[in-house]
Amino acid sequence: MWLYDYNAKEDNPYRQPPMVKITHMCYIDNLPDWAYPWHTHEDSYEVSFVVRGHGLFHVERETLKVEPGSVVVTQPGVKHYFSSEEESDVRYYGLRFLAEPGDGNELQSFFHSLPGDCAMTPAARHIEYFRETMWMLFHMHQSNGGHADGAFQSICLGLFEFVRELFANEALSVELSTEYLASDILDYILENEASGKKITLDTLAEEFHVSASHLSRVFSHAYGMSPINYLIYSRVTKATEYLLKTDLSVAEIAESLGYENTTHFSHLFAGRLGCTPSEYRARNQVLPPEAAEEE
Hints:
alpha+beta
């Protein structure tokens, strides 16, 4: 097994389109004894090449069967991991590269256009090509001081271009059930916000077993705003009812809605309604001129 990251600037001394910035290279050969736990790569695509054994690829709430020759592409921000099936010693290689705007870079545009959060294609007859290419990259890493230099990136580019051809011909994509998940998130927020329970993007992600970035993207796509902005909007709306229908102080209202800091709550309120809670209460407790004349 080997794992190499290319995070430092000097690790990628040469990069320009159509090259891509390699962020990680690995070879995992000891499943089921060791495996990555659930994890995400927030800013990178991951391309995995299974060369031995039968196993499972877990992505968010879905599971795909993998076998020798399976090529898996995982989009940035998607929670996933590999596992083996029974006693099969799954072995796979992996490369990650930085996701960047596709303008002027056909490779970036292609990977961005892949449907779903994960895509897989069979390529059993190309296992030797994957194995030999990855071992070539490994030996280059050993000989050039661990840098993804021009030669290293050129080989990666050839491999990624080949992957692009494979996916253009035959691929299985997995798109998570975003509408179902979004409605679950909304139900959870509605059920728990009234109790003043602390809700953050991280607690929501933990509750639904997905990455924070994926959860935010799914919810925003369904409801036009992030879950936290929706939560703030909902609580501010509830606060206006308290201000008009009760004699609770602003501090008591803030606490009942889950805000320990009254100043922070007032700032959020003013950001959405253009006035502080106290000003809102004062303005709306005064009868409009028409109503006053009628009385």
